[in-house]
Design a protein that fits this description.
By secondary structure, this protein is α+β, with helices and mostly antiparallel strands. The protein has one domain (2-146): Alpha-D-Glucose-1,6-Bisphosphate, Chain A, domain 4. 22% of the residues lie in helices and 49% in strands. The chain has two helices and seven strands; from the N terminus they run βαββββββα. A seven-stranded antiparallel beta sheet has the order 1-7-6-5-4-3-2, covered by helices on one side. The longest helix has 26 residues, at 121-146. Residues 151-156 have low confidence and may be disordered.
Length: 156
């Protein structure tokens, strides 16, 4: 049996939507932002239906145990105002990332991210907790990566 849930966050940064989309859609740059990622390898050519495909290695912890995991991620939509990615990992775990980017006044971009995680029920709580913590850390780093040194990231 599978369990699914969603969380979301918003980041405002001093950037254009196109600059933010370029950073977010290039998963080879996610090691700068995502606290669990150890290595990202671009798969050429992309998997069917994807604009870009990647193999990603994460480092996770479960109590005193530390372990690496490998999964595949595909960028399905990559536009200046919307990015959709899906990551798949064994066993039957899927993370769907739907990001919307919207310009705001004074050179700011609003980045709204919705993450939906589906996993086998016995693994769900751990996987959801890890995904949520990692993506909220990513949100903080994203604002800092896009803002000039005098800018102020504001994840909400």
């Amino acid at each position: 049996m599978l369990t699914s849930d969603t969380f979301s966050y918003t980041v405002q940064a001093r950037s254009s939507p196109a600059e933010a989309a370029a950073l977010l859609s290039d998963l080879t740059r996610q090691g700068e932002l995502h606290p669990l990622i150890v290595q990202v390898t671009r798969v050429v050519p992309p998997r069917p239906g994807a604009q870009a495909s990647y193999t990603i290695n994460d480092r996770l912890a479960a109590g005193p145990l530390r372990f690496r995991t490998t999964y595949h991620a595909d960028v399905l939509i990559n536009e200046a105002d919307e990015i959709v990615m899906v990551a798949r990992q064994w066993p039957a775990t899927t993370v769907r990332n739907h990001t919307r980017l919207r310009p705001e006044s004074d050179g700011l971009v609003r980045i709204d991210v919705e993450i939906t995680l589906t996993a086998p029920t016995p693994l769900f709580r751990y996987a959801f907790r890890q995904a949520r913590a990692a993506h909220l850390a990513l949100a903080t780093r994203l604002g800092a990566a896009l803002d000039p040194p005098d800018g102020r990231p504001s994840p909400t």
